[in-house]
Specification:
The chain has about 210 residues and is of the alpha/beta class. The protein contains ten helices and five strands; from the N terminus they run βααααββαααββααα. The chain is globular. The N terminus is likely disordered.
């Protein structure tokens, strides 16, 4: 288990539709080639992608976080043994065998990276985003986490320490973001709507209630 403390930096970051559309084109081209050569069953591939992007995705992780926010006993189990606590909700599978939960507080903000490749807890976060696998993110967030977070639109108080957790093939991390103010009495379903994928990686914060208000 590796962790790194805070430093300073700059990291160009654009991980929305432009990168995704480029990636989709590349994936489709690769899928076509592999299908033509008989290496890939397109039906099976479509099912796998649908499972992780729509059925699994970050929705599972959002449910885990929402339950931790609303159930102190579950939160304690999650922090003690995240793999078992996540399995309680039925979220198990490849890349999710050994998960550690780290909790954001006013004193410490946690960020996850995989400096060697792209180890990522698929059962709770789905497929890793393009930027998570990029060399700039993997190298710079370790050295300059505060500036990298700023590039993601996250500006933390100077007194908040930043800890970067390095995922490995043996251990993957799930960040429990801080529960937004003004959510007292909310159901787990309502709370889950506030949890974003980036907030569970640490490159984002949970949504404020006003952001999902009709």
């Amino acid at each position: 288990m590796n962790n790194h403390s805070e430093t300073h930096a700059h990291h160009h970051h654009d991980h929305d539709h432009s990168e995704l559309s480029e990636t989709e084109l590349r994936v489709r081209a690769l899928e076509t080639i592999l299908t033509e050569k008989g290496y890939v069953d397109p039906v099976a591939l479509d099912l796998l992608i649908e499972t992780y992007e729509t059925k699994v995705g970050p929705r599972n992780g959002a449910q885990v976080v929402a339950k931790a926010w609303s159930d102190p006993a579950y939160r304690a189990r999650l922090l003690e043994d995240a793999t078992a606590a996540i399995a309680e909700l039925g979220y198990v599978g490849r890349q999710g065998e050994h998960v550690v939960a780290v909790e954001n507080t006013p004193a410490q903000h946690n960020v996850v990276v995989c400096t060697l490749c792209s180890c990522y807890p698929w059962p709770v976060l789905g497929l890793p985003p393009v930027w998570y696998k990029s060399a700039p993110y993997r190298s710079r967030v370790v050295k300059e986490p505060r500036a990298v977070l700023a590039d993601f639109g996250v500006t933390l108080p100077e007194g908040t320490a930043i800890r970067v957790w390095d995922s490995t093939a043996e251990i993957r991390y799930l960040v429990i973001p801080m529960r937004p103010a003004g959510t007292e009495g909310w159901s787990e379903t309502q709370l889950a709507d506030l949890v974003t994928r980036d907030s569970m990686i640490g490159t984002g914060l949970a949504r404020a209630p006003a952001e999902i208000a009709a």
